[in-house]
Amino acid sequence: MPVPGGLQGAELRGGAQRLRGRTVLEWWVMHNLNGGFRCECSAGFEGDQCTVNVDDCKQHRCLNDGICEDGIDGYTCFCSQGYSGTFCEVDKDLCAPTTNPCQNGGVCYDLGRDYRCECLTGFHGINCSESDQDCASHPCNNGGVCVEELNQFTCKCPPGWVGQLCSDKPIVVFPQTSPCQGHDCQNNALCYEDSDEFGCRCLPGYMGNKCEIATSMTFSQQDAYISRTAPDMSNRVNITFIFATTEENGILLYYGKTGEADHLAIELFRGHIRVSFDAGNFPAATMFGDQDLNNGEFQRVQVIVLQKNISLKINDNEVQNATNEGESEYLGLDNSMFIGGAPSEEKEGAVRQWHLRNGSSFHGN
After folding, report:
1. Virtual torsion, Cα 146, 147, 148, 150, nearest 10 deg
2. Does domain 58-91 sit in CATH 3.30.1330.10?
3. pLDDT tens digits, one per residue of 85-139
4. Are the folds of 10-54 and 226-352 the same?
5. pTM score above 0.70
6. Residue 5: which residues within 8 A CB-CB, separation 6 or more?
7. Has domain 226-352 been given CATH number 2.60.120.200?
8. How far is CA 134 from its chain centroid?
9. Nearest to 288, CA basis, from 296, 276, 300
């Protein structure tokens, strides 16, 4: 190639090399010197022989955790979810109507770098794409065969099982002389004879002499809660939850009264357990768990109250202990204890007085 005008005594060379899987052209001007040479590199290269690609990412301007990829005399920003633009400077609306990932009427919440879908009843999953009313989750128990129908399913139960999910035993008709005649077992419990008396064999999720106490339930409705008679807090009280959820916030238990400081609150707040306890000795004793519990896996949380002392144990972690110091010996209120949520008035008062940090009802199992 002829030497361009004005570069007499210099030799112009060009070539190509592979860079990040691409072939790029590189050009340089080599100046002849007495006893050696000097290379004048084109933009983007450096080194004695212009073989080193300059790292343009050392002073990159990629924002919002964007990843910089070096190029030739420049770079490219690869943006994290939720951002776009040359330098990832544009905050994208992850819930925009054209890109809304939530299906089946789910409500989308833009969290910046991520999003969350709040599903309508009957759907679940990250994008609310999975239906509770189909056979994909194998809902039928005890060998029942699932049959899909329009927006629902039915279970064809084998002999010896009945119920929507084939979970119940058929009602047994006893002779008039049987102790089970006219029994008052509840919640589809099976009555069995024991000498001249009868007992109730409870289905999973219930306990008590008559199977009247629910121990397992699913919370899927907005603002749902269960009201129970509170135990005698002057004695040792063991409160144990085994639950699974993907929600960040949710009330597990609230025992308090509007306008009063005394309370016991157990909640999931930003994915962690928070316990607040005031037996009548302001300020309240507060404990936090350091474990993320909203990963969809089953978690075990145990809270033991002994008068004005309280302990917290999460799964297999160490026990935390606290005391609500003061003259009052125990928490004594005359109202109900709420599980999974609370009535609107109690919730609003609890959040206002910081008994609870978030008033959302629990959603999960």
Report:
1. -130
2. no
3. 999 888 888 888 888 889 888 888 888 778 889 888 777 788 888 776 667 767 7
4. no
5. no
6. none
7. yes
8. 23
9. 276
